[in-house]
Design goal:
The chain is an alpha+beta fold and 520 residues long. The chain has four domains: 123 residues, no CATH class; 53 residues, no CATH class; 115 residues, no CATH class; 109 residues, Multidrug-efflux Transporter Regulator, Chain: A, Domain 2 (Orthogonal Bundle), CATH 1.10.1660.10. Helices cover 47% and strands 9% of the residues. It is built from 25 helices and 18 strands. A hairpin with a 5-residue loop joins β5 and β6. α3 packs across α5, α5 crosses α6 and α11 crosses α12. The longest helix is centred in the C-terminal third of the chain and has 19 residues. It is elongated. The model has no long low-confidence stretch (mean pLDDT 81). Bound molecules: zinc ion (2 copies). The site of one zinc ion (ZN) has 6 residues, from loops.
Amino acid sequence: MGFLLRVAHANGLCEPKWLATNATKGLHQRLRICPHCLFEPGAYWFAAWQSGPPICNQHQCWLIDACPDCLKPFSFSTCRLHSCRCGQPYQAHCGVPVDPQIWKILYVDRVDPDVLMWMGSLAKHGLQGKPGKRASSKQVQEIAEFIELGSAAAVEWPKGFHALLSRIRIPQTGAKIALASSAFPAFAKRIRSIRDADWRARIEIEFLAYVRNTQGQESALLSRQIRSTSNAKLIAGRHGLSVERIKRVASQNALPVRVTEGGRKRYVIAPEIEERMIKELGDEVSTKQASAVLGLHPTRITALLSAQELTALGRGIRLASIRLFKDQILALATPVDSRSDRWASLSKVLKAYVPRTSTTEFFQAIKTRQIEVKCTTHPPSQTLGEGLLIQPDQVLAWLATRRAVQRCSDLKLDITHVAKALGVKPDVVRSLVLKGFLTPIETRANARAPQYFHRRDIDRFQEAFTSLKSLAAEAGIAPKQAPSWARHVGYEIVSGPTIDGCRQYFVRKAEIRKTERLAS
Ligand SMILES: [Zn+2]
Ligand SMILES: [Zn+2]
């Protein structure tokens, strides 16, 4: 090209294109020049300018391919040997120096400029559009921009490339876990377009590394090409747990999930979340395991669990609650002076004397020190069943009082006994039944049959209500004045002749207490 320009110049031709023949090809391409190289008169036009990165190796500057004055692109028809057609001499311009970092990448590290262009166009245009076309741009300004952007991704390999990938990935709506192929559509094809085999492999590897790295993050990516180390199945295998348990905990914790078209759930669980999950799962123990920890028969564990002495977790029991329960009981134990026949192990005592249904009450009795516990060793051995000692005599005594209490509350009273207990006539009891204050035990539908009451119901009534008559008598008020006195003092009369036709007045005990408090 320089030769033709020189010939035209030497022959005084004002239009070098007059020299163009069929043999002179490529005359319509954009011409690139180094203004510094052309500074000296008689300088050469280098053929190397037209290919490769638009950089002058000698001056380490970007070439120019358009006149900064008239803005016309340089071509065979606009260029003269020493100046643009507009008359502006090339010497008047100066090339933009190439950043030393880009220089190093291109000429020291010898990274293929096409690779930099590939990454640069990705950085500029993202995954949309046809970057392949754009990357093949011939304009110096655009090429320079692509190379600069590409160098930024290549300079801190692979960190810069990963950052680029994070920037361009297409955000997913809805599901937090996406397929790598939808976050980076047609990316494999795009990678295949890289000519430099070495760099193609590097980029492929780093892309997979990037996808793998996302597994520790909220917005994880799935790819068939990488073997996920963090899915439910593998985690289950690693910790010897069932996949179902892992999936259950994952869904309880609302971990990011991708539901496949087939409806299967795919989890990608980050290592720190895995750790937490396993800890939680480790905290969930089976009845059998709890039985081993406490040294108690599984039926005792079930009883304690249903009484909420132990806490349920998932389908098992929370280990922490088992430990807490154990510590509470162990804390009550004092070392035994000498092991005599009077002491037996807790498990023996339970087996011999304590029915399954009384398990919780038995441990309550230990907690309230109604039943004493001792331990043989200090600190007490690891299980309750064998480590703790109990006096069977104490257990028998406890069971006896318990039975007495139970019998008492189960006791049936007939209407005369109820009347006696309440200090009223039987008729009053009947009217209390009619008013719904007392409920007799269901007997046959025969109205003539004697009515019986549970002792505990009578106790409950006495706890809540009292007769106004006795209250007035205590206060020295005449029975006839009692109702008006009661209202004056502020008692709540719940039943009585003027209230509901009941034969006697009754007031609520809570009101009495309140009134007494006010009076004092
Ligand atoms: Zn130069
Ligand atoms: Zn010009």
